[in-house]
Amino acid sequence: MPQTRSAALYQRALGVLPGGVSRNAVLRRPHPSYASHGAGCRVWDLEGVERIDFANNMAALIHGHAHPAVVEAVVRQVQRGTAYTLATEQEVEYAEYLCARGGFDRVRFVNSGTEAVMTCVKAARAFTGRPKIAKVEGAYHGLYDYAEVSQTAQPGNWGPGDKPASVPVAHGTPQSALDEVIVLPFNDPPGAQALLDRNAGDLACVLLDPMPHRVGLVPATPGFVKAMREWCDRHGALLVFDEVITFRSSYGGAQEWYAERPDLTALGKIIGGGFPVGAIAGRAEVMEVLDPLAARVRLPHSGTYSANPVTMVAGHTAMRLFDRQEVERVNALAARARARIEEAIALAGVSAVVSGAGSMFRIHLRSSPPRDYREAYNGPEDAARVKLVLDHLFESGFLMINSFSGTISTPMSEREIDLLAEAVLNGFRLLAERHPEARRTS
Ligand SMILES: Cc1ncc(COP(=O)(O)O)c(C=O)c1O
Prior knowledge:
Aspartate Aminotransferase, domain 1, Aspartate Aminotransferase, domain 2, 2 domains, four-stranded mixed β-sheet, binds pyridoxal-5'-phosphate
């Protein structure tokens, strides 16, 4: 008989949900941990165990859980109805706010990051009349057929470094979809340009996450962004940024790091204030493809729950609270986390390194930060070592993103960071004990 409520729930879940889950990210062995409730930067499971939350629903929560102002705004809205077949004042107000904050001319709301990226790609095709897209090898952009190409590439199928293969994620992905996607090496301007040149007349856009998480959580270099911007301008293609995660990095998103601006930006995660959301934002001339009043409507676009007022008030409240001062404060806490983890690495004498910027960090069990997806890729042995430390952190009361990444939320203080660093140190000591080969040699 199952021993715990979570174990018993998982038995029931296996009978009705494939693999017992609705999203793969929450799967744990022998069973997922089931949440009871959260408050601030802490989450409790059904067994009553409290953990400090560095996962923040996969980087989507900037204020942690149940921020009183967000709760109040949502409750007030829910009592007035959650969605109507009518436009709302809330969507106009939030659109004005986001445009001013991010320096966008226009925005359109959708319901997820996947949908935001998909809509950007379709808008780029509608604007240019071209079919192909280019994306960085290994970058995660959600589940759209084209955007997910190469996301799970492995040494056996990723092909040559100067011409990465268009590897499908889902079995049964049409070859025609793969043929429309050019996979680029990250932070390699000449290598990427050579591949783009071969497809110049067919490319609608270059899709770029300024700090792609799976590629190693290392920022795109200014030189790479400049090269992509210039290539797009030269060849009439659009530069699309996926800032679904990175918008938390600066007040106006990670695009503030660069001199060049994208034509379109996909947004999601934190802009929903804890509710499902996505948005596509950008230049008026490009966003016009979505205009249903245009003489020629190039991209008809709908969504039953798009811009629902609950998401709008939650997101607007959360983003107002995440003002310039708070952006700076969480970024400073993340810098402290990166520094304290570097100290733990030195003290434990393991071969590891920390990457990241803004309010995020990722730990790699290698001696230098990965330069691209191939270097960030964990084979089965690396994955087992990462799992050992992550399991230790989980057992010690910390929720992390399963790629060994963490994100800061505003309820955190130096205390939570220091507690994490201490637990990471113990995790590394355990790693060195169990896997002597993980020790630093030099
Ligand atoms: C960079 C990036 N783009 C797009 C997505 C997809 O967002 P969603 O899960 O809301 O569909 C994610 C999700 O993790 C992401 O990290």
